[in-house]
Amino acid sequence: MSQRSNAPYSDFIHDNGITIEYEGHDIPKIGNIEPKQFDQPEKTKTGKLTQNGLFKKAVLDYKEGNREAEIVRVYEKLFPGIWSEKGFFLLIDYKYLSDGKRKVFRFILEETEFEYKNDHLTENKLKPRSRVIPTEIKKIVWERDKGKCVLCGATDELHFDHDLPFSKGGTSITVDNVKILCARHNLSKSDKIE
Ligand SMILES: [Zn+2]
């Protein structure tokens, strides 16, 4: 959902560490209008579903048992030009509520493990799920590790690695237990930096 370069999402990680909430899309900014003064739309003026509307429909169809949950690959922007792949999530619910000034969509996504096998996306139910690393922590780690693998200094195929298996639970993710590793040094699953 946030592959668009202007993705303005504010995200929110639930206490279980694997469920995140993302805000929906504003109306397009055309001329002098201020999109944040308008309700986030389900449909365009011509009646077509917006991205919000498509996600809402996917949730309703999923809840009625008509389809599997939609798989969403989530990216987040750390700094201008620096994107991190947050991983694959299942779109399981949505809310449409007032933020005090206007109505906004909130989409509820649950982390899941998918991997490409022979060009097919396959859910890996055996792989333990890891806790989602909050964006703010990634930003601090990126600056501390200077955007390089801490072991060899590589600057390509980087991942955020945290030595905190989800199964152990209990401990929260902090700057101290996250580091940047390249693909060669990153043996466990973690969030990829584009
Ligand atoms: Zn390395």
Write the layout of secondary structure elements.
Elements: E1 11-13, E2 19-23, H1 51-63, E3 70-79, E4 82-98, E5 103-112, E6 114-117, E7 120-123, H2 135-144, E8 158-162, E9 178-182, E10 191-193
Antiparallel strand pairs: 1-2, 2-5, 3-4, 4-5, 4-10, 6-7, 8-9, 8-10
Bound molecules: zinc ion.
Can you identify the CATH class of the largest domain?
A: Mainly Beta
The parts where pLDDT drops under 50 for at least 5 residues are: 1-9
Major sheet details? 8 strands, antiparallel
Specify the helix fraction band: 10-25%
Could you tell me the number of beta strands? 10
Domains counted in the coordinates: how many? 2
Instruction: Name every ligand kind in the structure.
Output: zinc ion
CATH topology of the largest domain: PUA domain-like
Shape: globular
| Secondary-structure-derived class | mainly beta
Beta strand %:
25-35%
Description of the structure:
The chain is globular. Helices cover 12% and strands 34% of the residues. It has 194 residues and is mainly β. The relative contact order is 0.16. The protein has helices at 51-63, 135-144; strands at residues 11-13, 19-23, 70-79, 82-98, 103-112, 114-117, 120-123, 158-162, 178-182, 191-193. The strands form 2 sheets. Strands 1, 2, 3, 4, 5, 8, 9 and 10 form an 8-stranded antiparallel sheet that branches. Strands 6-7 form a two-stranded antiparallel sheet. The chain has 2 domains: 1-127, Roll (PUA domain-like), CATH 2.30.280; 130-194, His-Me finger endonuclease fold.
Condensed summary:
With 194 residues, the chain is mainly β.
Which descriptors would you attach to this protein?
about 190 residues, globular, single chain, mainly beta, His-Me finger endonuclease fold, PUA domain-like
